[in-house]
Amino acid sequence: MPTPGHHAITKVVVIGGGYAGTLAANRLRARAGVDITLVNPRPEFVERVRLHQLAAGTGGATTGYGTLLGADVRLVVDSATRIDTAARAVRLASGRALDYDYLVYAAGSTGAVPSSVPGAAGSAFGVAELESARRLRARLAELPLDAPLTVVGGGLTGIETAAELAERGRAVTLVCGRALAPAFGEPARRALARWLSRHGVTVLEGAVVSEVRAEAVVLAGGAVRASALTVWTGGFAVPGLAAASGLRTDALGRLLTDETLTSVDDDRVVAAGDAAAPSGRPLRMSCYAAGPLGAQAADTVLSRIAGAAPAVIDVGFTGSCVSLGRRAALRQFARKDDTATNVYFGGRVAAAYKELTCTFAMARIRREARRPGSVIWIKGGPRSGRPAATVT
């Protein structure tokens, strides 16, 4: 029994040291008596929103955890291989095991190169992870400036990568699949197309890559286009840890939770960020959503420790911002449910705004390290729709 006036020690393990997991680990310090361990495979924080800069050679994308974590958060540099919910332990690749009373599952997401596209896995480069971005940067350094490059994927990552390379003087083709920036409003999409055209990017909408070769890409229909280097940005995947641990997931592998981010299988497991699927209706994979979800996952754990009912998630979107090299960007506004409006702004003002948001994401984590529980975010109200069943 704990001594009167003292809290019992509650062990919380956070899996994943990205935007969601790092903020959650810091916020958990708002309650005395919580022993916090953060497990991450790398000894440094990766700013995923800057990986296209790292790949193109226009900036860095890593920060030391010493500047981000509260002093009493223990960092374990290792990879989680299995969550043993029966024993309440996380098995690590090193052979160690970490006991927990509560677990925050913030395993994040990775790039996804489809195995169904011949040659893609072996010949295309990724930009969604630190190691793949570094490999891409090294390969670009070996190529002449006029070597034809192909970026596959018309989403924000593909646009940012193509724009960054084009501004460096590279010859880039952007193969969009269905459309360029399909989540944006039509006025913003036209503005993006104009910027890319002015900077020499060939945009192929309605085109699909059916094969990747060492020196070319093949489009559906048989057209072959020279490509000394192909970057694949079309889609994301999540680690298979949850499914491998016997926890229910959605089709992509995100942990299924209720609207409090609690696993539908185990109320000692709470999810946050890209690897969470609340009610089977996940929020957009983004740095924007990761921070609030990390905070709310921590709040759910703290509520359960206190014996209180946790609150449902409440995140309101405002839109998204896509960088266009170092001197321009485009800010698309959205309703709180993340549906795009026809309002946007661009140019240097948008570039300054984009840089501010990237800097703010890190400042928010540092603020939570200094003052646990202080971070706030835009609310959108409880989500409508039938929630997934929770544990009883």
SSE layout and pairing:
Elements lengths: L9 E6 L3 H9 L6 E7 L3 E3 L4 H6 L5 E3 L8 E5 L2 E5 L4 E4 L4 E3 L2 E4 L4 E2 L8 H4 L6 H13 L5 E5 L3 H12 L3 E7 L8 H13 L3 E4 L3 E4 L3 E4 L4 E3 L2 E4 L3 E2 L3 H4 L10 E3 L11 E3 L4 E3 L8 H20 L12 E6 L3 E7 L5 E7 H24 L22
Parallel strand pairs: 1-2, 1-9, 2-5, 9-20, 11-12, 11-17, 12-13, 19-21
Antiparallel strand pairs: 3-4, 6-7, 7-8, 10-18, 14-15, 15-16, 22-23, 23-24
Helix pairs in contact: 1-8, 1-9
Describe this structure in words.
By secondary structure, this protein is α/β, with parallel strands linked by helices. It has 9 helices and 24 strands. It has helices at 19-27, 51-56, 120-123, 130-142, 156-167, 186-198, 241-244, 287-306, 347-370; strands at residues 10-15, 34-40, 44-46, 62-64, 73-77, 80-84, 89-92, 97-99, 102-105, 110-111, 148-152, 171-177, 202-205, 209-212, 216-219, 224-226, 229-232, 236-237, 255-257, 269-271, 276-278, 319-324, 328-334, 340-346. Helix 1 (19-27) runs parallel beside helix 8 (287-306) and helix 1 (19-27) packs parallel to helix 9. The longest helix is centred in the C-terminal third of the chain and has 24 residues, at 347-370. The radius of gyration is 22 Å and the shape is globular. The chain starts with 9 loop residues before the first strand and ends in a 22-residue tail after the last helix.
